[in-house]
Amino acid sequence: MIGCGHQTRREFIGASGSCFAYLSSVFAISGSTALSRWARPRADVVAQEAWGRLEEVGPGLWALISTPLTGDYTTLSNGGIIAGRAGVVIVEGTASPEGARWMAERAVALTGRAPTHVVVTHYHGDHARGVDGFGVEDPPAIHATPATAGLVTSGFDAASEPERARPWADVVLIDPGAPTGIDLGDRTVAVVPYEGHTASDVVIDLPDDDVVWCGDLVWNEMFPNYLDAVPSVLSASVRSIVDSGRGTFVPGHGPLADAAAMSTYVSILDDIEGAARSALADGRTAEVAGEAYRLPDGVSEWTLFNPEYFSRAIDAWMRELGSRD
Fold it and tell me: What percent of the chain has pLDDT over 70?
């Protein structure tokens, strides 16, 4: 979820649309280079809209790559469609009901059946806000950890927003302590719990297909949002995902990643840690350190959703490191 200024947690969870105006500044930050890079698919495209595209990453597997740099934020986060003989999984609830509805329609077009399951990787609005768009007639089961479900539903008033509350009334709770599976007949979707980006994240792993959906634990060609992050835990989780040895990584934001891109991402996580440690040693504030921070050579063109993301990441590290003293 994009962070805008200093919101309350309720505002942050419940009003994903309130932040989207911040993206109007992305062009000033990243310019046309980032936009042209995002516009280049890494796999065959089977559907394209202003806000994103579906790329085929394997038999019965499609990754949603959202492209908010165009100025259309219907989906905003990445996601996907996973088809099996006995069901269809949608990864993420998207940022809006319209985005979820589009994903459901694409599932029907590509697989011949409506989605039966939706896995929400964490509570941020750009991943969870749209779930009521999947419909009321034979709706898919919404899967989320107890922490994710609790944080989502604390962000709105169920009595006054019944449409938003409806999909979460019968949420299927994911075990936060061990991997679980969703049986699709001819394939099993592994839902693996992690922490780091938030207090409760999951990834969707398909070892036999060499693909993993990483949620916002992983960003590619975009600097990550540390709003709720515990930086050392985030770093460890990312390394664990890399160690899985998958060939294709679907990040929470940005284009598809391979092993080389993941190595670059790890190096950036390490670099921001180093910047925070230096700031602590020098007595500089996170704000001052963030303003001075520059991405390493070779990735200086990475995009920022928000110009405060460097300071936010350094502040998260400084708070964690300071708490150890």
Answer: 88
